[in-house]
């Protein structure tokens, strides 16, 4: 029988990458941590693209060896067909010696969750958090109410801090009514999985499925011309299948999709009519039952920390998956929240200082992500813009160059210039290759 504690130092809500790493980092520092996850791992999650920045956090969590031994698909970089121009970049050109990955999220997330257990975190799966009672007194306890789904019992646990890593559920943000939609990005996503798809390798050539073990793939992204090249598609080769998805403006969908056409059929028709993507899928077979969709997925929280709580990962905000920074940003915020909680536990008088630092750093990173992803970037607040500018300045020159090159993969590089007030114009984009075309 599972031994479920009723008291601990920190409760982490959610067992995705951000939640699992937060639990791991806090446990490593000697705190008693209980992680509550509403599903049973392994569980499905879309978003299979990992940039190599994640290694710094898995190294700290001492889980990198487990990830290496799993045999995920190593990817060389990215290939983008945008507004008729095809560009390609490679991570090795920016000093990264460890690979980026295409991962099955159900397996990747489970590795991180089991590692949290192994280091000593108490992990309770199938535990649905329903409410958190917060105290304004820093020394008082927070009460987390949850339903244990196997026996449908209602339970509660007391703790000093709550870390909300509940992803798109944004449990605490919704309860406190601080989650707001990002009106600059009213989009929806449709996705599904295909068997035996070709892919674009790091050599700029189309490769067959059986070459995956010899020629590393790239993540392929294509703008969708019917949307005015605002919407886009992804193509991510995995070990047994290929993840394919569409990002579409809701306003465009309201005009273009007829009511007698199902979302799944619309998705498949768009895949069939999108140049390059349709050629990559020409001999592939759609996996029946794999279709999914979500609308209005971009949002942020107006308050990401308060007395007794911190919001991390997608629970704090989510912009757009175009440059695959979501998982790494979640890992970073897990590390940042761990620092803030540890600082507060050891020096309670510095709680406000630690919380303010957490908020500034998280908001700055989210704003940088917005500037790289949004079709028409505008900052809502000058203070946030300044924080984002400072955040970029602290990055190495090579990392700044990478961000600049990534921005130039699409026609959204002006966003990056806007954020930096054109100071980025001196950054070289020599590492960005323009391909003459894709031969099939």
From TrEMBL:
Pfam families: Trp_halogenase. Belongs to the flavin-dependent halogenase family. Bacterial tryptophan halogenase subfamily. This is Halogenase. The keyword Transmembrane applies. The gene is pyrE. InterPro entries: FAD/NAD-bd_sf, Flavin-dep_Halogenase_NPB, Flavin_halogenase. GO terms for molecular function: monooxygenase activity. Keywords: Membrane, Transmembrane, Transmembrane helix. The keyword Transmembrane applies. It comes from Prochloron didemni P2-Fiji. Gene3D superfamilies: FAD/NAD(P)-binding domain. The chain crosses the membrane at residues 322-341.
């Amino acid at each position: 029988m599972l031994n479920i504690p009723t008291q601990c130092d920190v409760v982490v809500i959610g067992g995705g990458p951000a939640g699992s790493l937060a639990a791991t980092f806090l446990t490593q520092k000697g705190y008693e941590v209980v992680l509550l996850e509403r599903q049973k791992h392994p569980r499905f999650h879309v978003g299979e693209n990992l940039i190599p920045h994640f290694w710094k956090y898995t190294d700290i969590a001492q889980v990198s060896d487990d990830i290496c031994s799993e045999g995920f698909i190593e990817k060389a970089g990215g290939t983008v067909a945008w507004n008729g121009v095809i560009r390609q970049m490679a991570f090795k050109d920016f000093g990264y010696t460890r690979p980026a990955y295409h991962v099955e999220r159900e397996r990747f997330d489970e590795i991180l969750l089991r590692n949290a257990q192994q280091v000593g975190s108490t992990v309770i799966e199938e535990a649905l958090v329903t409410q958190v009672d917060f105290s304004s007194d820093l020394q008082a306890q927070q009460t987390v109410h949850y339903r244990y789904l196997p026996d449908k019992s209602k339970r509660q646990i007391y703790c000093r801090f709550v870390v909300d890593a509940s992803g798109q559920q944004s449990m605490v943000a919704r309860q406190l009514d601080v989650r707001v939609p990002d009106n600059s990005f009213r989009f929806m996503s449709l996705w599904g999985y295909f068997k035996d798809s070709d892919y674009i390798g790091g050599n700029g050539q189309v490769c067959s499925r059986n070459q995956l073990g010899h020629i590393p793939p790239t993540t392929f992204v294509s703008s969708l011309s019917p949307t005015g090249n605002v919407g886009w598609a992804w193509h991510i080769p995995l070990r047994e299948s290929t993840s394919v998805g569409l990002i579409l403006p809701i306003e465009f969908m309201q005009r273009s999709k007829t009511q007698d056409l199902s979302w799944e059929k619309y998705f498949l028709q768009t895949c069939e009519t999108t140049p390059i993507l349709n050629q990559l899928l020409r001999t592939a077979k759609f996996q029946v039952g794999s279709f999914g969709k979500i609308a209005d997925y971009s949002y942020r929280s107006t308050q990401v920390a308060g007395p007794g709580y911190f919001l991390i990962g997608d629970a704090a905000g989510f912009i757009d998956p175009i440059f695959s920074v979501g998982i790494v940003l979640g890992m970073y915020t897990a590390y940042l929240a761990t620092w803030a909680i540890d600082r507060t536990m050891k020096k309670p008088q510095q709680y406000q200082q630690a919380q303010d630092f957490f908020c500034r750093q998280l908001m700055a990173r989210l704003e940088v992500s917005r500037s790289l992803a949004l079709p028409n970037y505008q900052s809502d607040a000058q203070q946030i813009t300044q924080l984002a500018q400072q955040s970029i300045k602290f990055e190495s020159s090579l990392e700044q160059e990478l961000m600049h090159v990534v921005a130039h993969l699409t026609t959204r590089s002006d966003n990056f210039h806007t954020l930096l007030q054109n100071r980025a114009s001196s950054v070289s984009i020599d590492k960005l290759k323009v391909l003459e075309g894709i031969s099939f």
